[in-house]
Amino acid sequence: MMPMRSFFLCAALLTLAGCGGSKQAEQPKREAPKVPEVYKVKMVTTKGDIVVEVRRAWAPRGADHFYGLVRDKFYDGVKFHRVIRNFAAQFGISPDMKRDELWRSIKLPDDPAKEKNLKGTLTYAISGENSRSTQLFFNLRDNTATLDGKGFVPIGKVVEGLDVMEQITFVYGDHHPRGTGPHPQLIQTKGYNYLEREFPRLDTIKSASIVD
Q: Are 121 and 156 in contact (CB under 8 A)?
């Protein structure tokens, strides 16, 4: 039997055709779904609905990866854990700790920067070269001066619900030592009990789905 980790990573990458088990258990091969050049994702949040238009031409690797994450329902129940007023609203740590660990083990090669971090664009968070994984953020203002040229590559933009994006709770701000908000590593190690106990006012993505 294929180890669970290998099976999940293959599913996460949408390449099930290349992940066979024993001959007796072999399943019919299926082609991975083709990612549209342009697609839309509807996020139903605790503040309202946000629709994002994602374009492969902006960042093909990032757009393809996000497509797989959304299809896998990774963002359902995910909280906006780092929201800095007039800067960015970040999300992407799953309440399912095992699922989160598996998905964030996949690191994407960088895409060349083609678009600017304008207000309303959706961009992967990074911690260095080739580090994109599951966390992204909405630019809450024009951040071209601070983010462009530093590896922050937008994959799409908000086309509906820009006002909803602006209402996402920012009361906690950045994480320590730059603020009093939740620390990502503590979310990953302690789980959502930590968030619900100490940061109950965080907004949540109830569901995220491909709509076009």
A: yes
Mean pLDDT across 191-206: 97
For residues 153 and 164, the answer to whether their CB atoms sit within 8 Å is no
Give the per-residue pLDDT at 179.
Answer: 85
Q: Give the three-class secondary structure for 180.
A: coil
Sign of CA dihedral 153, 158, 159, 162: negative
Write down the pLDDT at residue 130. Answer: 97
pLDDT of 19 above 50: no
CATH architecture for segment(s) 34-210:
Beta Barrel (2.40)
> What is the domain partition of the chain in residue ranges?
1-32, 34-210
Of 77, 58, 91, 70, which is closest to residue 165 (Cα–Cα)? 91
Token duo for residue 144: 């071209």
The predicted model gives 148-176 an average pLDDT of 95
Q: Per residue in 115-129, is it b (16+ CB within 10 Å) or e — as a string?
A: bbbebbbbbbbbeee
Eight-state DSSP code of residue 195? H
Among the listed residues 172, 175, 137, the one whose alpha carbon sits nearest the alpha carbon of residue 153: 137
Percent of the chain with pLDDT over 90: 81
